[in-house]
Amino acid sequence: MTFGFSTTAAEVATAFAQEITGKNVLVTGTSLNGVGYETALAIAPHANLLIITGYNLERLALSEAAIKREVPEANIRGLLFDLSSLAAVRKAAQKVNAYSEPIHVLIHNAAAPIGPFKLTVDKLESQTTTDLIGPFLFTKLVAPKLIAARTETYTPRVVLLTSIFHEYAQGFDFADIEYPDPAKYEPFKAYNQAKSAIVLLAAELSRRSGGAINGYSVSPGVAFTNIQQKPESFEIFFSSGIINSDGNPNLANFNWKTVPQSAATTLVAAFDPLLEDKPGIYLDDCKEMPIAGPNISDPVLPRQLWAVLENIIGERFEF
To answer: Where is the signal peptide, in residue numbers (predicted)?
Structure first.
């Protein structure tokens, strides 16, 4: 079939069932009514092992139970951790590294609410930490588990969710990433910068690994998920014209996807065998797209970003 805007995650998973079979897949951010949940649900019928994560034990249990209702035979393992805490990320990575199984695909879906300025326990900005710094550290720590899945015919993959809005980021304030200043903070500016950095990170991960791991960045498009329904995000989404005063999607300003449609491109990035020789690319609507935005066309930026992230986590990420 031809994939596009209207393709669902389940349709992609069915098309690539052979590629998913036997794989161990870890998906972050799998709360109900979210893109990560739909991603996990589509993978569940086919994968050897599906690891779902979340920062709230009750919500994680609800997601696991919901998947089990739909796919009783699914082999699911829950992993509790908060990407906004570097200590929690390290603890979760220790658990993953103790698993007997390798990890074939790591999908970084989790994201922080777009809301007022908030510092994490590590004195870092919340959105940037959850969307970028935490995933960087977790990937670094579980990289041996990913590389353990590599064979002569298979390269493990890391899929990082970005946004169609990544192109609106106007450069990188690396100093503010390390030492966030509330006076500089604008919710969507922080969001756009983090999502733009994710595009760079996927490409730089692929380059630095030298073929050991393939990284891909994915835009899910615009869908009405639990992110837009966070109380701390309402005013920001309303004032920006994304949702209406009643809290429902503003259909006039955006071409909305359903949540299953929004998860489809993630599945393509994770399992399409034709992408094997295209590491580091950006995908939208289930296909490769040009990387947009003047701030990410500079080849020096990915190296600078990598160095800044290494400095924040306090260790080198080398292969």
So the answer is: none
Structural domains of the chain, count:
1
Tokens of 111: 């994201």
Name which residue leads in pLDDT, 290 or 104: 104
Q: 316: exposed, middle or buried (C-beta count within 10 Å: 0-12, 13-18, 19+)?
A: exposed
* Residue 240, in any domain of the structure: no
The pLDDT of 137-144, averaged and rounded, is 98
In a domain, 231, yes or no: no
* Chain centre to alpha carbon of residue 75: 22
Task: Read off the CATH number of the domain in which 282 is found.
Answer: 3.40.50.720
Q: What is the DSSP string of 242-308?
A: SB-TTSSB-TTT--PBPHHHHTHHHHHHHH-GGGTT-TT-EEETTEEEPPP-GGG--TTHHHHHHHH
Half-sphere exposure (CA, 13 Å, Cβ side) for 179?
1
Residue 28 lies in a domain: yes
Per-residue pLDDT band for 261 (boundaries 50, 70, 90) equals very high
Tens of pLDDT, residues 114-126: 889 999 999 999 9
Among 231, 233, 200, which Cα is nearest to 302's?
A: 200
Which pTM value belongs to this model?
Answer: 0.95
**Among 5-19, 39-53, 210-224, which stretch is predicted with the lowest mean pLDDT?**
210-224
- Pull the structure tokens for residue 203: 């490409």
- The rounded distance, in Å, linking the Cα atoms of 306 and 304 is 5
Is 86 within a domain?
yes
Q: Are 227 and 114 in contact (CB under 8 A)?
A: yes
Helices (DSSP H) in 118-217: which residue ranges? 126-128, 134-147, 174-178, 187-209
pLDDT digit string (tens) for 186-221?
988 888 889 989 999 999 999 999 999 999 999 999
Q: For residue 158, what are the domain limits?
A: 9-223+257-312
- Using DSSP's 3-state secondary structure scheme, residue 174 falls into helix
Structure tokens at 164: 């169609």
